[in-house]
Write a structure and sequence with these properties.
Length: 112
């Protein structure tokens, strides 16, 4: 892994409500704090705060439509998050393989 993991991005994604908002936006294409809150066990105000966090991490784009602010996912940033997740997973797989090899070597020597 090249160390390019964006902590702000993962802090935004780390919250289960924000991940559910991302899922809803993926399924529906876009939404408002009101429309999203109707599908979540939190208030519209809480959803608006979560959307602000996602917006700061560039995961969503907000735009005015009449009196409402609508949000949609930023595909580029979402793809970047997915790539980082793959990198992290690959790094942990490599670590676990090294641990397995060390444990097997210890077992073969009879030290364990």
């Amino acid at each position: 892994m090249d160390g390019a993991v964006d902590d702000d991005l993962w802090l935004a994604i780390g919250d289960p409500t924000r991940r559910r908002i991302i899922d809803l936006l993926l399924a529906e294409g876009e939404g408002t704090a009101t429309s999203l809150s109707q599908q979540l066990p939190v208030t519209r105000q809480a959803v608006a705060k979560h959307l602000t966090v996602l917006d700061r991490a560039d995961l969503v784009e907000g735009y005015q439509q009449g009196r409402e602010k609508r949000y949609r996912l930023d595909d580029v940033q979402l793809a970047r998050a997915a790539a980082q997740l793959t990198e992290v997973g690959d790094a942990w797989d490599a670590r676990l393989q090294r641990i397995t090899r060390i444990a097997e070597a210890i077992e073969q020597r009879g030290d364990g």
